[in-house]
Each structure stands twice: as C-alpha cells, then as structure tokens.
Amino acid sequence: MGKTALLDRTFPDFNYVSLDDAQNAEAAESRPGEFLSNHQTPLILDEIQYAPALLRHLKVYVDKRRDQRGLFLLTGSQSFPLMQAVSESLAGRAEVVPMLSLSATEWAECNELKSRFSFPELLWRGGYPGLWSDPDALPSRDRWYQGYMATYLERDVRNMLNVSSLRDFERFLRACAIRNGQLLNMSEMGRDVGISPSAARQWLGVLHASGQVALLEPYHRNLGKRLVKTPKLYFTDTGLASWLCGFQSAQALAGSAQAGAFWENHVICQWLRWRDWHLPSTGLWFWRDRVNNEVDLVIERDAKLHPVECKRTERPNLSDLKGIRAFKEFYGESATGSAWIACQTNSTFDVAAGVTAISGWKTWSLE
Known about the structure:
This protein starts with a helix and ends in an 8-residue tail after the last strand. 44% of the residues lie in helices and 15% in strands. The relative contact order is 0.08. It is α/β, with parallel strands linked by helices. The chain contains 16 helices and eleven strands.
C-alpha cells in the first residue's frame, strides 16, 4: 500500500488501474491495444508485473508520442521479473526509482508517530507503512510479518525460483538475518542451512533482486590487492531482520549482541534510501584493509570520499576514530572530505579535527 498511496496522493490527476485485479491483468495481457485505448493518460498502472506483455505495447505507444512526457507511472512489487521486462521493452524510455520502506526522516515527519514512539521502536518494528498506518491501533508486528513472509514465499519466491523446500528457504532467510552486517560467506551459510553454496548464491540473488537485502561492496582504487573484496550483507528493513532473529521487543534488540550491527544496518540503509531518491550516482561503499582497519560506510560524492563510522553510543570518543584515521592515511587528506561518526546523539559536536559526531537516525548534509 505504501507506493500506491504515495502515487495517488502525489499525482491526484492521474487515472489509476490496478493490475492486481485479475480481470484488468487479463485484459492488459490478451488485449493490450484495447486496454490502452480504454484508459486515458496520464495513467498509473499498479502492479505491472502481472501484465508483462503490456510493456511491449507501452513502448510502441510512447514511441508514437515522443513529444509527450510522463504518460505512465508503473509500479511493481516483484522487482526481478519486472526489471527484466522493463530492460527488454522500455530501455531508454523509463526512469526507475527503487522504493524501500519508510525512511527515518519520513517516519519522524509524522508528528503523531514521533511523539508517541521512539526511534528504537522504528528500528525494531521496521518501516513498512502498513505497520504504522493507524497510530491508535498498530497491527501486531509478529502477525504482520508472518503474513508478509507467507505472501512473499508463496507468491513471489515460487515465481522466481524452483524452491523445493520452503522451510529451507525460510531457514536461509533467518541465517541471513543473523549475519546482518557481516561479510558474506556463501559456503558457511549454505552449510548451516543444508544447501549448496551455489543454491545459497542463487537464493541470495533473489533476495537482493526483490529488494529484501542490500549488498555493500568494498571500496578500492586499484589498490585493492590490500583490501578485502567480499561484500557485506544488510537487510533493507531492520524490522524484517529483527523479526527473523526473534527479537520480541525494542528493548530485547537493544540489549542483544547484535545491537551494533542493527545500528550500522539502519544508518547505511538510510543513506541507501537517500541515494535512490536524490542522487543515484552517489557511491556507497565500506572499507576494510588486511589488518582489519575498517570504515563502515564510505560515501563517494563530488570526487570526495566521506568516511562514516556507525557507533551505537551517545558520546563517541577518540578510540572510535581508528578506522577513519587509517582510511585518511591510506588515501590521503586530499581525497577525503568530511568524516562523520553516526551515533545516537541528539546534538552535533566535533570529536576531533575534521571528524564530527552526528545523529545517525536520519541522513545529514555532507557539506
């Protein structure tokens, strides 16, 4: 409902058709010309993945009207098959904007939510709009994710993969959640779940393609022989990861050994949302050398590298600067811009020259 409500409110003058409706989907698939003639543009086509054949006809329709822009807004919740069809039919004719769950900034702009619930509650509960749509009667988190999991497994995964055991796939999801914020090790993950590394790699690819997880690649500039090259795994929504890990409350998550990894996950995925919406060319990386000096997030923008450490504390100190100092020494002061420690402070302050502590609940200006 999040993307649909957003488009409906942002583009109230657009006509709307949901292809989640079987009758609409059948008409769009079998009689695309007639379908398009029956619906006036500008038009929102919701859940376009249920009528992939329509995309070829949209290409013809758009090509005949090259002087017009914004004729169609397409949404889809199965990004892998959808993007495959878009790349084949609408290459060069469409802009793609990934839509993840609510960012902390969006959540906080609802004063009723911010006044009644804490940011740690958002970290634990997650940012799916359906979990927050009625502040006076929040749905059961556990039941909501149980339903989401059943729908995702039954409808989406079976359409993308030949999964012989849904139980194994669910165990794989939980294994991923436990490794949230860690370097990927397919052999270890496959062994723990009881599947082959190739199957683990294939299943992870589906999670990534469907927007459930994000992979943060290591940064290097032809000096990569001294750096690790394995990506780190994060969930695009911390609520799903916390549910898969079995945390029953925000307090339980905050008191766990994984609290630091979840905080890191949160900060990185806020920047992932910012990049997708505002400046897709922005590079997001992590950095680690062979002696385990590490920077959790490197933001590459305007030919500068901005190192960010994620620390789950209100008052970071000089010992928290080890990774940033190693990074600056490795690449040089001329290549690095502002450095930050994303922590749980409510105020911004300097930790050392060139390194600023700032609230990591939301994104901030790099200037």
